[in-house]
Design brief:
This protein is an all-alpha fold. It is built from nine helices and no strands. The chain folds into two domains: 95 residues, RNA polymerase sigma factor, region 2, helix turn helix motif (Rna Polymerase Sigma Factor, Chain: A); 79 residues, Winged helix-like DNA-binding domain superfamily/Winged helix DNA-binding domain (Arc Repressor Mutant, subunit A, Orthogonal Bundle).
Length: 215
């Protein structure tokens, strides 16, 4: 079974180029027309990747990422020139995701995305159709899909603070410092959250692993 770290290997990393972000932000604050499009082009995919995994719903993820950019536009003149844009965007998005998830839990609906689909970033790890001569047998494909589903379910069951930390570290590949800024804790706190998350994930996947060994 693939671990979260292994599943992240095929994903694009967050574009952590603070100099480029600062240039775009200054242009954005001068109301240059191309600046917002430039920021969206840089950040849309990693934000969609995070929101899609947090919410398990690509339509909701797209809505909340759009809302994040709308808030960036609204607050553009309040941001300092040295604002760490990656932290600002992910902090805003994680709060939106948390609020939306709580609202969904109080207003459950039948999801049209019960069967995992393509990743919101445009990539689809584990789900892309291979070439015919390399296609695994149906048993192997089913086992792989079940492994992905088990990991998604276990991550989704984590408390908000642990879930955010796991997604930002293992999937978006942010540093401890970057996550600490977003999560509002120390770097040691990030390390502690990751350790707690791994412990809960092992516990959550224990039943699946027992079933796999039995098969």
């Amino acid at each position: 079974m693939e671990s979260p770290a292994q599943l992240s290997a095929a994903l694009l990393p967050v574009p952590l180029d603070q100099a480029a972000d600062r240039t775009w932000l200054l242009a954005f604050q001068r109301d240059e027309s191309a600046a917002l499009n430039g920021l969206i082009e840089r950040w849309q995919r990693p934000l969609l990747s995070f929101a899609g995994r947090y919410l398990q719903n690509s339509a909701d993820a797209e809505d909340l990422v759009a809302e994040t950019f709308a808030r960036l536009y609204q607050h553009r003149h309040r941001l300092r020139a040295d604002t760490r844009l990656s932290a600002w965007l992910f902090t805003t998005l994680t709060n939106l995701c948390h609020n939306h998830h709580r609202w969904r839990s109080r207003h459950p609906t039948i999801s049209l995305e019960a069967v995992p689909g393509p990743d919101p970033t445009g990539s689809s790890p584990g789900l892309a159709l291979p070439l015919a001569d390399r296609a695994p047998g149906p048993d192997a494909t089913l086992e792989h899909d079940e492994s992905l589903a088990a990991v998604r379910s276990a991550v989704n069951a984590l408390p908000h603070d642990l879930k955010v930390t796991v997604l930002l570290h293992h999937y978006e590949r942010l540093s401890y410092h970057e996550i600490a800024v977003i999560a509002g804790c120390s770097e040691r706190g990030v390390e502690t959250r990751l350790a707690r998350a791994r412990q809960q994930l092992r516990k959550g996947l224990r039943g699946y692993l027992r079933e796999s060994k039995r098969d």
